[in-house]
Structures are given as C-alpha cells and as structure tokens.
Amino acid sequence: MSKWVRAALGAAELLVSAAVHLGYAFYIFGAAVAADVAASIVKGIMAGVAAGGVAKDVAVGSEDEAAALLDGAMPPIVLVHGIFGFGKGRLGGLSYFAGAEEKDDRVLVPDLGSLTSVHDRARELFYYLKGGRVDYGEAHSAACGHARFGRTYERGHYPLWDEAHPAHFVGHSAGAQVVRLLQQMLHDGAFPGHAATSERWVLSVTSLSGAFNGSTRAYIDGARVEDGGRSLRPVCLLQICRVGSVLYHWLDLPWLKRYYDFGFDHFGMSRRLVGARGLADILIAGRRGPFATGDWIVPDLTIQGAARLNARLRTFPGTFYFSYASRRTARTRRGATVPSGLLRIHPLLFLRALQMCRWRYPAGTPPPYEGYRDEDWEDNDGALNSFSMTHPRVPDEHPSMPVDDDGAGGRPLQPGVWYYRIVEADHMAFVINRRRGGVQFDLVYDSIFRNCRRLCLPDRLAGSLQKQS
Description:
Blueprint: H1 3-51, H2 63-69, E1 77-80, E2 107-108, H3 118-130, E3 132-135, H4 138-144, E4 149-153, E5 167-172, H5 174-188, E6 202-208, H6 217-220, H7 237-251, H8 254-259, H9 271-285, H10 290-293, H11 297-301, H12 303-310, E7 320-327, E8 329-331, E9 337-339, H13 350-358, H14 386-389, E10 400-402, E11 418-424, H15 434-455, H16 459-468
Helix pairs in contact: 3-5, 7-9
InterPro entries: AB_hydrolase_fold, Lip-like_C, Ribosomal_uS2_CS
GO molecular function, one term: structural constituent of ribosome
Protein name: Lipase-like C-terminal domain-containing protein
C-alpha cells in the first residue's frame, strides 16, 4: 500500500472518529441544557402554583439532610467517574452512572477533573470527602507547572472519614486507578495536616472496566509509543481533544463550566490570566499547561504510564477488591479477534474495538514490560483491553481469582485478592445510558452494592446486620 493511500485512509478515519465523538459530545451537552431549561420552566410553574396556595414546596432532601445520612453508622459508597466523566450536579443533573446511585441512600458521586491526571484526581477526591482546600503537593505542583492549591470544600462530603468510619469505592475506567492511588496516599500519609491517614480508610475497591494496566487505544488515538504518551502525534484525535480543552479553559465562561469542566483550573489557563500571548504559549509553542508537562490523564492510560503507577501501588491485605472486566470481542474459527456484533457496541466504540483487535506494538521499540505479547491485548470493549481490566498485572502480578458469581467457588471472600469477572459488554454499558446495559446493568450494580453492604462490613457492623436479618 502506497504512502499516499495510507495517508488518505488515516485522514478519513480521523474525520469519521472526530465527527462521531464531537457529535456525541454535543448531543450530551445539548440534552443537558434542554433538561436544565425544562426543569427551570417546571420549577417556575410549581412556584407559581405554590404562590397561589394550591401546593407547597415539594422538594425533598436538602444537602444538609443528605449529609446527615453519612453519620458513620454505615460506610458510604463513593462512585468515581472515568475519563471525560462528571459528578453529581453537572450536565443538567445527568447521571454518569445512569442512576445507579439511586440504589442506595448513602452514595456519593464526586465531580473530579475529567482530563486531569490520576495523581491530581486522587488529591481532589481526598479533599472532596474530608474537606479543606485541595493540595496537589508542593513537589508535584512545581514539577508539573501548576498551582499547588485548588478549590476549597468548606465542608467535606464525609468529614467523619477515618479508620473508624471507612468508605467503599467504586471506580469506572480511569476512576479505578484514582481510587488505588488514593489508598496508597492514605497509607503513605501523603496529605499535610492529616498525619493519621491509613489504607484502612478504604473498606473495599470495586472496579468497573478499570484501567489498571493501560490501554492500546491511547496509542491509536495519538499518544506516542516511544515516550509513553508524554507527547502526541501532530495529527490525531487527541490533538483535537487538546485544542478543544485548552480553548474551553481559556475562554473561561462561567455558564459553560457550570455544565462541564475538564478540571484544569489549577493550571491558570484563563484568558483573564494569560491573555492571547499565553494562549499561544499553551496551544502553539507548548511551553506551559498540562499537555506540556504530561500532567493529564492520557499518559497514565498508556501501558508504560500504568506500569509507572503500578510500581508504587499495593494491593493491601485488609481491603476487599472486586473487578468487572468488560469485553465486546470474540474469536472467529480461524483464530482472529473481531468485534462481537455491530448493534451491541456503542457507535463511539465500534471502530476502536476493531482497531484494538488488530493493533500491534511497533517493531524495534522496546516492549512496555517483560513478557509482553500482542495477542494478550486483542480482546477489548472499545476503550480498554480486557487483559488490562481484570486486575493489576504490569509490571508485577497482584493476587487474583476469577469468579463466575458473587462468591469464590463456595469459599468465603478474602481481603487482599482481586476477584474478577468477565462481563460481555462494551465500555459504556454501565454508564450514561441505563437501557443499553439492560438487565445486566442492574445485576452488576446490585452485586456491587450487596458486596459493599454484606461482604465488606467491619466486624462491628457485620454483627448488627446479622441481627437485623
């Protein structure tokens, strides 16, 4: 195949990918705005009715009442979103977890940076729960060229959080690595002013399509293999993402950021701060900002980046670990791996599922870890490789056990072991759109919440639960 033909095919693929991704993004954003406008109209009508004496304010559950539920008597469940995700209150109240948080009255859904690094998101998650001003760390902030401090949580969403009042964590995609890094930071005592933190603040970690070992999609989207995603190819889907997110933060429109935020405020990219010259430094010269220093999520999603993270992250013997690895590919009779059905894969993911089946690590480039094999990484869900999602494997294998149901072959579950299941689903089956997940959506979340409430309770709570039942 000639160079010109390959270039034409590459340009066509990029055009299609960009159109699909941008179209879906505008659809979600437009739906959020429409829902917000509709809610405002309904609220105005209800207010008018109440003013006429026909009805009273029917709002239920204020923030204070919701906080009162988190009294430490029962550990809360914290749902942590992945890349391009969002927490409660964003996008006109759209639920990233497709309403799964409604299954339990002690669930928190934090809004973290959607494109920020695993490190920065782990720091934000701590202060979201405990309260205070987000401290990204002096050394990290200096090395990555951003402000040390971020937003302030006047009152943490779970201020009681400590070893005596732990929490369960459920992470989707990159959110699983955020939770693991947070637990390691708690073990290391890495939060100034909080000297008594411990890994035991985390009762359980549940991963939904977790990015434990990186993804070959990061390279397909434009991350350079040679430096583990620290730089991007000149023309690629991630370049469009880079330009869009920089312009979004540079414009700094409050009404726009109320709906969605990439999370780069601590890099100080607003037009009010840097002006047009600063935009050129960030966007063209690449002399500042997250994309210049590599302090954003994509380098953490490469195989090399995940290996760097995993080298310092432990699986702790006192914590329960569960993992649901998704797969939407199958083997043909001739041994080829292909997407398993066009209609069962989200339009955002089908093309990438096919490309990930066929992707090969560049010849002549040092492999990302000892024992790497291309065939291990063929099965995927359109965003992550199934091999990467079961449990931490790179650079060292963590204790794990495959299971077919909620148990472990009739044996009681043990902490310090990753219990994983392979789920036939694409990467978005359990987020954004509940109907696409079908019955499996409820089965998975019911299993997660049942594990959190029955299998992972501390001894002091397990006894009381048995008495109630």
